[in-house]
Give the backbone structure.
Amino acid sequence: MPRVALIQVVYNSLRFIPTVIPTALNQTEKDTRMYVVIAGNDDSGREYIAEHFPLVHIIDPGYNVGFARGHNLIFSEVDAEYFQLINPDLIVSPDFVEKMLVPFEQLPKVGAAGGKLLKYDFERGAPTDILDSTGVCIRKSGQALDRGQHEQDSGQYDNQRALMAVSGAAAMFRRSALEDIVENNGGEHPQFFDEDFHSYFEDVDLCWRMYNRGWHIRYQPNAIAWHGRMVASSPGGYSRVFSLIRHRKEIPLAIRRLNYKNHFFLFMKNSPKWYLRFIARELLYNVYTFLIDISVLKVWPEMWRQFPGMREKRKALKRKRQISLEDAGRLLD
């Protein structure tokens, strides 16, 4: 088995495959193997990978398994020491994996790490110097934001630092940390990513669970990658209301519903307490959704079905927490 398993879940991603997969296969760290889970193949991406990249191990469940279950399949079946996630639209530098391993080798309690992600313009086929993520910051209001997103990179985030989460587009996880936070181990298969999330915020949820168990989450600025990113935050943030509304309307409805549901469950499961800032933001967010984006609320029946299970998960996580209540909220902005 490889020391590092490279994992990619592809959903009709043929337009990225010829550019992305070669960068993952040509790493200075040689003890790797790449696994691709097919979540959607309307564009015949699976056949392209099989023909052009025979070293890639393909898993095709035959349906859209989603980001969470797609990765759980590999976590469960591959006996690697580390797992490096590589989004379908992520181009990695030649020494990316080698540099990502450094914080794990420096400190045994590092459970997850993320590199410096810059934006890649697939329209022009060119990298940019605009930041996509230098880790994820979680606020007491419930927001989980990619640090530095939309900023020009001038080295302002070039110091290693502790975080509560990193972007799942390019995160690396230690196997023993994943095994420590696994959920539903008596079910069909172990759930490392919470499959109730399906996609979106499942990466932050996993990292937050690690943090609450006493694992360290690290940002590694020397590991460089370029991310196309299909959905990003509004460049103007909340300060430009009409720009924010226009930006949200451009996001597919299915993704808006997942974001609506999952951001609430993320905080419900993991936060050490209910903060007033979270309650105030939820009230405003729901007023906005009711007045401007009411079709998102059709996700309520699914939320209602999942709510009892999430409540039980919160209780279980509270029992398993290995850090003090003070430390649990220390890195919340």
In short: DSSP finds eleven helices and twelve strands in the chain. Residues 236-241 have pLDDT under 50 and may be disordered. The radius of gyration is 19 Å.
